[in-house]
């Protein structure tokens, strides 16, 4: 008996007949409505009675929302692996991670050859498939910066560029029956996908044994390889053979296949709508329940919690991996896992955590916190991983990744209250709100996470019109260090609600924020390039123009230092928006002209477009960029002294990226005491990126600190204690320490510019 502990999946194996091309699409949609997990299709490109399977997969992915789609299996000899890999990654990105690669080495060689494909012997087919795996996985790995080279006998790739990276780790399932192919599965594949109709009694057990042996020799746990099975059958009043009988018989026989032969995914040849509905409504739920009960009684370890010898060797000291609760182990990523490269880094900073936990709700976050407190390693929380300061990853520690909490739900149309998962990105939020012509000020890049920006401040393109992002937050759900799940608002735990808006990362883990959106039509988005030879003069004029502009205008300025072939340049990114209506182009032009007068204009383009086209959905996968250093400060005005100080910073060469963001207008309407972010009179936020902390610190302290008026910690990597008082001027800091003493007295949340609790500070 063999049970690998895989979470059970159920799907359909549909015929891509083209007599009525909408029938297979309708059956796939029925597969989803019935509650099944995947829809798969035969791939016979030489069959004129069939739709092209790849085209059908893309159509079905667009017509569904939840199910995984796959070929069953794709015909490798007629689908070059490099092109197939890019197509698969593209479909995976477009569908939000809903593609699986079912792949076959080829079989009908006369038909394949007739279509222009190669004729291969069985041995050559296996060799070609192994080369194809190297090509496809190489294409999917943009973290490797070297060109892809595979000097194969059947598939040769000579310096191909890698990418795009799929939305998730695409599993490769191989259709196979012979020992050599089975050994290849054990070494390299993610799943075995045979059809029971082609097998004799005992073939499942024999195949599992060959795969398991090859996996162990390769340092893998056999449970890393999912066992899938294509099945045929019919529901009948009385039994007349295997899967030829009543529903109870199906449940019993499928349960036995899971527990005795290790099958984790059942795929049914089901072009019959009634069978699909019965599978989803009666059979699949009952099989899941029966298998779960048997596993509980047997103490079966879930497949997701098992690791091969290579993965075990990559584990880090200070973490008791064996004690990780099963609900977290199912989705956790460790250094030895193939997904590790896609979750270890953040946007700019490289990381090497010992484990990345990916909870799916408040309950699992509580479990993660309980477990993490027992580990002797750093702990970080990640919303989307964009933060410039890099505090959402670490080296050798635990990262709590909230990426699964991505819902965007309107909870009150009248007040435009929107409940947003902390792991969503602001590009996803903007896209979801665009049909209602609503928008929430949210930074300047769609890849920024909701949880980070929505608890720190939120200086965005709509800032002078709407205020900071935290000014729109009306409620939140938080998990505290003690494991309490609290709803916080002005009426519920008001002290924590106050601290949340500006220092939330120090107080707990936010699961969702309830935010009041604004009515915003199309906006004018302008991009200007100006000669910044007279840097100080340009900054003075631009700063004065921004402060005098209508609140609908918010402008960000990015400075590039002089190079050998050109002088310093300034790029202005400016949004002009109006409440409840489209932006007035004439009013926008008049306001933009005052900015253009700040210096010699070299280039300008402006567009009228939705907010969601500016702050747009971005990739969630980050590859890091080393260990950048940053400094950040607020400026009341860009007067003569401040402008000259920034000019000297730029001329020093210490900063390779210098940005000034407008933060006035509606931001000033909020009482400084009403949120933990107390900076309500400054008009600009200055930030600078450098390659070394000591270098940028020296120049910043000499030039900028004399004109600086507060700090915005999201852009700062200098951890010296004086940064806290710049970010949280008294009495804000003392008040934060009191709140911290109430909700996190042991200082569990200390990776985000730690605020010592009042009691701990006194001790």
From TrEMBL:
Superkingdom as given in the UniProt entry = Bacteria
Keyword annotations for this protein, in alphabetical order, are: FAD, Flavoprotein, Oxidoreductase
* Protein name, UniProt field: LLM class flavin-dependent oxidoreductase
Family membership, please give it: Belongs to the oxygen-dependent FAD-linked oxidoreductase family.
* Pfam family name, one: BBE
Which organism is the protein's source?
Answer: Myceligenerans pegani
InterPro entries referenced in this protein's UniProt entry, alphabetically: BBE, FAD-bd_PCMH, FAD-bd_PCMH-like_sf, FAD-bd_PCMH_sub1, FAD-bd_PCMH_sub2, FAD-linked_Oxidoreductase, Luciferase-like_dom, Luciferase-like_sf
Q: Which cofactor(s) are needed, names only?
A: FAD
Q: Where is the FAD-binding PCMH-type domain?
A: 348-520
Q: What are the leading ranks of the lineage?
A: Bacteria, Bacillati, Actinomycetota, Actinomycetes, Micrococcales
Gene3D superfamilies, alphabetized: 3.30.465.10, 3.40.462.20, Luciferase-like domain (3.20.20.30), Uridine Diphospho-n-acetylenolpyruvylglucosamine Reductase, domain 2 (3.30.43.10)
